[in-house]
Amino acid sequence: MAGTALSGIIFDFIFWMFGFLRMGTTGLTAQAAGEKTKRNPFLF
């Protein structure tokens, strides 16, 4: 039972880590896209 709980904790950590990266880069991508330059907004 402890293994199931530990795997759930690890899964939640990884899931929220990717969510944090997605939310953290949204503003940068929006700013780059809003500049309307020929620069690729996905390259920082």
UniProtKB/TrEMBL annotation:
Keyword Transmembrane among UniProt keywords: yes
Keywords: Membrane, Transmembrane, Transmembrane helix
Domain of life: Bacteria
TM ranges: 6-30
Name of this chain's protein: MATE domain protein
